[in-house]
Amino acid sequence: MRLIIGLTGSSGIIYGVRMLEVLRDCKVDVHLIMTEWAKKCLVLETDYDLKYVKSLAEHYSDDSNMTASVSSGTHKTDGMIVIPCTMKTLSSIANGYEETLVARAAGVTMKESRKLVLVPRETPLTSIHLENMLKLSRIGVVILPAMPGFYNKPKNIDDVVDHVVGKCLDQFGVEHNLFKRWETT
């Protein structure tokens, strides 16, 4: 499997880092794109450094590198996840404003009819945010907000993060044991 992972500057960069760790362990070929604000959030919100995060992916491109392979539909992938996804990035994707590599790669993913999953982490949401999400959802983009479930009784922040990451992996059929599945008696 080959996935594009976009990390943007929304609070919640830990979701993206954890996604990369799990995909590495699952032997998924990852092309990572990080925005400048994602790099800033990495420093502000975690103890990870950029070198470590880059090491989790097979390929890396800066968000300004519009000549990267993932900017073309001829570069085959199984899809893309933007985690976390800022409202600015979501708006760019919803309106075809492909000025950055994350937005361009997402646009390519959509035009090639590949799966695109966006993980917004924002609250509260304005009508504009909701309209952009609805616009994308209507064309098949999966809007998967960072809303953890609590039926699995999380014990710590890692459990909460793993639930959201696992829900994203489910979208691509990637097997994992990040959370306990719902079972009724």
What attributes characterize this protein structure?
alpha/beta, 185 residues, 41% helix, Rossmann fold, 6 strands, globular
Explain this structure to me?
There is one protein chain. With 185 residues, this protein is α/β, with parallel strands linked by helices. It has a single domain, classed as Flavin prenyltransferase-like (Rossmann fold, 3-Layer(aba) Sandwich), CATH 3.40.50.1950. It is 41% helix and 17% strand. It has 7 helices and 6 strands; from the N terminus they run E-H-E-H-H-E-E-H-H-E-H-E-H. The protein has a 6-stranded parallel β-sheet, sandwiched between helices. The longest helix has 15 residues, at 157-171. The N and C termini lie far apart (35 Å).
Concise structural overview:
The chain contains 7 helices and 6 strands; from the N terminus they run βαβααββααβαβα. The protein is α/β, with parallel strands linked by helices and 185 residues long. A 6-stranded parallel beta sheet has the order 3-2-1-4-5-6, sandwiched between helices.
Give the second-level CATH assignment, the architecture.
Answer: 3-Layer(aba) Sandwich
CATH fold-level label: Rossmann fold
Order of helices and strands: EHEHHEEHHEHEH
Q: Shape, please?
A: globular
Number of domains: 1
